[in-house]
Write a sequence for this structure.
């Protein structure tokens, strides 16, 4: 019978367990690095793919501005506003307001906002200056603004204007007339076709207004605000192509035989 030797037994579980944990940790780190690399590579591919698609999109006409809409313009036409702002349908829709910041070049535009609408549409919302009338000179036309500035242009034919022609040469009186007009609403001003001085022996500040319906209004400058009730005055007095005197003292208006 063989002698049995007392050989100490190794703790196999402990040894293999330690080796397994180290290997697992190493494998985990390796796998993690590979995943990170794959994720970065995939992200790069996505970015490159997106950039390629974006470049292709920009090369196509579908990326251009599809339509330009103008709102709140009363003085300038649609085309004049578009030209002043500098936007065309050849421009890239996504660049408007992002890369390209339009600046309006027109004395008639006080302020404006540009909005990127749906389906490639650009909306230009304008706020125009208030115009009171115009003066015809030998070689130009002066438009008179609400802040009493004169805007000189070579012609009036290209503008949508419902403004009175002002036939007053005396500068001091002209300024008084403009100041009185500035206190009127634009809807009333648009109904006046022509303004002339009409001084009398009892009132040097009298003016005559030719209205768009053929009626003539006579008033002292101090009484001009009564014309704000023009529609009510016509309904009350009645008649066609008549002459009307505005009476500020009695806050009334009456019809008389045209001079």
């Amino acid at each position: 019978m063989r002698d049995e030797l007392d050989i100490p037994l190794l703790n196999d579980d402990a040894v293999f367990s330690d080796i397994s944990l180290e290997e697992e940790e190493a494998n985990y780190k390796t796998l993690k690095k590979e995943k990170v690399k794959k994720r970065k590579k995939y992200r790069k591919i996505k970015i490159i793919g997106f950039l390629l698609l974006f470049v292709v999109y920009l090369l196509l006409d579908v990326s251009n501005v599809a339509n330009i809409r103008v709102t709140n313009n009363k003085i300038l036409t649609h085309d004049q506003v578009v030209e002043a702002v500098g936007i065309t349908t050849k421009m890239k829709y996504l660049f408007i307001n992002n890369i390209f910041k339009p600046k309006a070049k027109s004395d008639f535009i006080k302020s404006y906002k540009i909005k990127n609408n749906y389906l490639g549409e650009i909306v230009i919302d304008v706020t125009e200056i208030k115009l009171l009338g115009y003066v015809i000179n030998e070689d130009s036309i002066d438009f008179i603004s609400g802040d009493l500035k004169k805007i000189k242009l070579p012609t009036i034919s290209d503008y949508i204007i419902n403004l009175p022609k002002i036939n007053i040469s005396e500068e001091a009186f002209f300024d008084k007339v403009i100041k009185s007009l500035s206190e009127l609403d634009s809807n009333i001003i648009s109904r006046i076709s022509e303004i002339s001085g009409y001084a009398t022996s009892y009132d040097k500040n009298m003016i005559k207004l030719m209205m768009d319906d053929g009626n003539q209004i006579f008033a002292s400058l101090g009484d001009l605000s009564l014309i704000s009730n023009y529609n009510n005055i016509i309904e009350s007095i009645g008649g066609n192509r008549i002459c009307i005197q505005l009476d500020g003292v009695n806050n009334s208006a009456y019809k008389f035989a045209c001079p």
Q: What stands out?
A: The CA atoms of residues 76 and 159 lie 6 Å apart. The longest strand covers residues 109-116. Residues 12-59 form the longest helix (48 residues).
